[in-house]
């Protein structure tokens, strides 16, 4: 049973519409999308908010966040102003994920499970954005990525691949892109291993067991249902704080807000989940390593543009599911700052 608080049902406004889109670069397959059209002519309407999924949580996890954002924007309590102005929004399921049942056409003829990688996902995202961006007096829109897990890595790769486009990133419990998720834990077979340095409730046998479980489930070589190959990710993003994102929209460093899971909540969730990871393992190894990675992410942009790491209380890895209100508030806060700069 998932260690989550029950969330109240959030009614979806009719302004959230659903569409199937064929990329011009891949016309034989459809991507399933959730869209919101922009309204008004304030700085808010000049922003394009794009939600980026992890491997497990599909676009449906973003729908409550989108609804809550529109509610806040409509009643004007977010400090943004502009009455009922709202940004364009887009959430989507990548090929082979969520409501997108079509497979990536580029996978044909390749080894199953390793057909396309994160750079391919970035190229698809760029094409999707180009086909869905609403015209605004021939002026490009500021991109605001709201991302979770591997979606955060895709956001970073996009900003690096297409400089001058991204104005902000809200990174919700980013994947540790440079990790193999095994070396987080000490290796009892290492010649430098010191059993005396272990916490009282951690044994070499427990480390062996944990490393093997993580190797089987989280190692970058492990295949996933959508066929997204993660083996090159550590090479593409070897550092949490590099490459720099100094070249954001219009040459201005982007806003970057980093949010991490609640360490104690995550530890309990990991114990109750399918991995049955002991709390001592999460608290002594996984959580500290992840927090250091999040600290590095805040250095991707200039100091005055960075915020965090913020700890999302009572949230595990899927922060947008566990606390959509927090995600919506933080996204609206970034919208307000971007609107003032427009």
Question: Please, could you describe this protein's structure?
Answer:
InterPro entries: AB_hydrolase_1 (IPR000073), AB_hydrolase_fold (IPR029058). It comes from Xylaria grammica. The chain has a single domain, classed as Rossmann fold (3-Layer(aba) Sandwich). It is built from nine helices and ten strands. The protein has helices spanning 63-75, 118-132, 150-161, 204-217, 233-236, 263-272, 279-297, 319-322, 324-341; strands spanning 17-23, 26-36, 47-52, 88-92, 116-117, 142-149, 166-174, 228-229, 255-261, 306-312. It has an eight-stranded mixed β-sheet with strand order 1-2-4-3-6-7-9-10, with helices on both faces. It has a two-stranded parallel ribbon with strand order 5-8. β1 (17-23) and β2 (26-36) form a beta hairpin. α1 crosses α9 (324-341). The termini are far apart.
In total, the number of domains comes to 1
Broad structural category:
alpha/beta
Tally of alpha and pi helices: 9
What do the pLDDT scores average to? 92
Q: List low-pLDDT spans.
A: none
Fill in the CATH topology: Rossmann fold
Biggest sheet strand order reads: 1-2-4-3-6-7-9-10
In whole angstroms, how far apart are the ends?
46 Å
Largest sheet: 8 strands, mixed
The SSE order reads EEEHEEHEHEHEHEHHEHH
Fraction of residues in helix:
25-40%
* Assigned CATH class: Alpha Beta
Give the CATH superfamily.
Answer: Alpha/Beta hydrolase fold, catalytic domain
- Overall 3D form: globular
* The CATH architecture: 3-Layer(aba) Sandwich
CA-based gyration radius: 20 Å
Percent range for β-strand residues: 15-25%
Number of strands: 10
């Amino acid at each position: 049973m998932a260690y989550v608080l029950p969330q109240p049902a959030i009614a979806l406004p009719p302004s959230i519409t659903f569409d199937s889109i064929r990329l011009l670069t891949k016309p034989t397959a459809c991507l399933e999308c959730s869209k919101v059209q922009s309204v008004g002519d304030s700085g808010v309407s000049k922003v394009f908010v794009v939600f980026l999924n992890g491997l497990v949580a599909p676009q449906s996890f973003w729908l409550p966040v989108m609804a809550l954002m529109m509610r806040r924007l409509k009643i004007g309590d977010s400090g943004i102003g502009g009455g009922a102005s709202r940004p364009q929004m887009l959430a989507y399921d990548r090929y082979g994920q969520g409501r997108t049942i079509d497979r990536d056409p580029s996978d044909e003829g390749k080894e199953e499970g390793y057909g396309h990688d994160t750079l391919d996902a970035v190229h698809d995202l760029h094409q999707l954005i180009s086909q869905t961006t609403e015209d605004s007096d021939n002026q490009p829109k500021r991109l605001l990525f709201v991302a979770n897990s591997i979606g955060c890595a895709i956001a970073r790769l996009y900003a690096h691949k297409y400089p001058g486009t991204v104005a902000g990133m809200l990174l919700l419990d980013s994947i540790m892109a440079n990790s193999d998720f095994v070396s987080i834990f000490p290796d009892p077979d290492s010649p430098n291993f010191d059993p005396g340095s272990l916490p009282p409730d951690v044994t070499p046998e427990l480390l062996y067991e944990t490393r093997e479980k993580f190797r089987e489930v989280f190692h970058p070589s492990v295949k996933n249902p959508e066929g997204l190959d993660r083996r090159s990710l550590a090479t593409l993003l070897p550092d949490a704080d590099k490459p720099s994102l100094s070249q954001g929209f219009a040459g201005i460093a982007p806003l970057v807000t980093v949010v991490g899971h609640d360490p104690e909540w995550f530890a309990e969730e990991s114990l109750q989940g399918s991995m049955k990871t002991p709390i001592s393992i999460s608290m002594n190894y996984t959580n500290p390593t992840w927090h250091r990675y999040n600290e590095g992410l805040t250095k991707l942009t200039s100091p005055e543009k960075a915020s965090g790491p913020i700890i999302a209380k009572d949230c595990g890895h899927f922060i947008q599911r566990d606390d959509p209100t927090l995600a919506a508030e933080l996204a609206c806060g970034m919208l307000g700052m971007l609107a003032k700069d427009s």
